[in-house]
Amino acid sequence: MLSRAPIFDQEWWYEAATAGKWQQVDYSIGQNIQSKLIFSTHRRRGITTIGMPRLARVMQPVIDLGFISRKDTLADTIKVLSGLLKALPRFDRFSYTLPPESRLDLAYSLAGYSVTANYTFRSDPSGSHDPWKAMDQKVRYNIKTGSKRMAVETHGDILRYVGMSRRFIKNRAFSNLIDYDAICRIWEACRHREQASILTCVDGSGQDIASAILIWDDVHLYYWLNCRDPESNDYAANSVLIWNAIEVARKAGLIFDMDGYANPTAGIFLSKFGLLPQRRFDISMTNSSARLRTAFSSHLVEMVGPKLRLNLLAFKNRINPV
């Protein structure tokens, strides 16, 4: 039986995502107000970040305000968030993303954190909004025609997904930073609880051309991870996969969550599927030295330039094809 808690807030998720290396801080005011924050520590390029356990998408602290009056709720929430901040170990950057239903964004802002909005796309929980009818006509056409050229298989072979993901990343980045060990641990934990499956688009010759991992709790189904065969030019596969995932969520009585997007181009593409935009807030705090180091690193990347990066990547793949 599933728990009402979101999948990313489950202790078994922390264990799988971090190999047991997650941490928790607690803060209380008197005997009534209690709170806790689950986190893990990441270090990259000399910067220590405290944030969500790996591959979690949205999380928030657990805050129990007891029986305080409604007018004191915001003030006490700010005190709690400030108290949790002081309880954390030293860090250069704090980074969390709140779920769309969270109401902590204002309190975080007033507690001194930076709050910025990003977006995801979800199906309507009431079922009164039909994404197929609201979908962009061209996307609907691609799904119809693509479904005639390819089949969608549902399976549990995580290594089949990982193989395609490695090929996909190899053609797009100098180094693959994806933690496949964590993905496999999380996959096994989800599958053990019957909370995950993989959809793969297969062409007429039986070749895998695109794949997506779906995970869910008892409220939401997330389009968690996806990749495609870099050698395939049939871009309709992504549209077919997304629509099939929406159908899986609908049949299960769950809210489909597109799980955000990496850049504006991807966001424009996803906005055409007839789903409803939902705002979720990124919460962050960065010290001054970390800001300088991050700005310098970004400046170096800009100096290289996108065309030169592509040429260097192509050269790397020629001399090191494995």
Biggest sheet character: 7 strands, mixed
The helicity comes to 25-40%
Q: How many strands?
A: 12
Would you identify the CATH architecture of the largest domain?
Answer: 3-Layer(aba) Sandwich
Q: Might you state the CATH topology name of the largest domain?
A: Aminopeptidase
Strand content: 25-35%
Specify the overall morphology: globular
Low-pLDDT regions: none
Number of domains: 2
Oligomer: single chain
Along the chain, the helix and strand elements come as HEEEEHEHEHHEHHEEEHEHEHH
CATH superfamily heading of the largest domain: Gcn5-related N-acetyltransferase (GNAT)
Q: State the CATH class of the largest domain.
A: Alpha Beta
- Alpha-carbon Rg, integer: 21 Å
Task: Summarize this structure briefly.
39% of the residues lie in helices and 26% in strands. With 322 residues, it is α+β, with helices and mostly antiparallel strands. It is globular and about 65 Å long.
Describe this structure in words.
The protein is of the alpha+beta class and 322 residues long. It folds into 2 domains: 7-119 and 282-319, no CATH class; 122-278, Gcn5-related N-acetyltransferase (GNAT) (Aminopeptidase, 3-Layer(aba) Sandwich), CATH 3.40.630. 39% of the residues lie in helices and 26% in strands. The protein is built from 11 helices and 12 strands. It has helices at residues 11-18, 73-87, 105-110, 131-134, 137-149, 158-170, 180-192, 236-252, 264-270, 288-304, 306-319, and strands at 23-29, 33-44, 47-51, 62-64, 93-97, 114-122, 151-155, 196-202, 208-216, 220-228, 255-257, 276-286. The strands form 2 sheets. Strands 1, 2, 3, 4, 5, 6 and 12 form a 7-stranded mixed sheet that branches. Strand 9 (208-216) and strand 10 (220-228) form a beta hairpin. The chain is globular and about 65 Å long. It starts with 10 loop residues before the first helix and ends with a helix. 30% of the residues are buried. The mean pLDDT is 87.
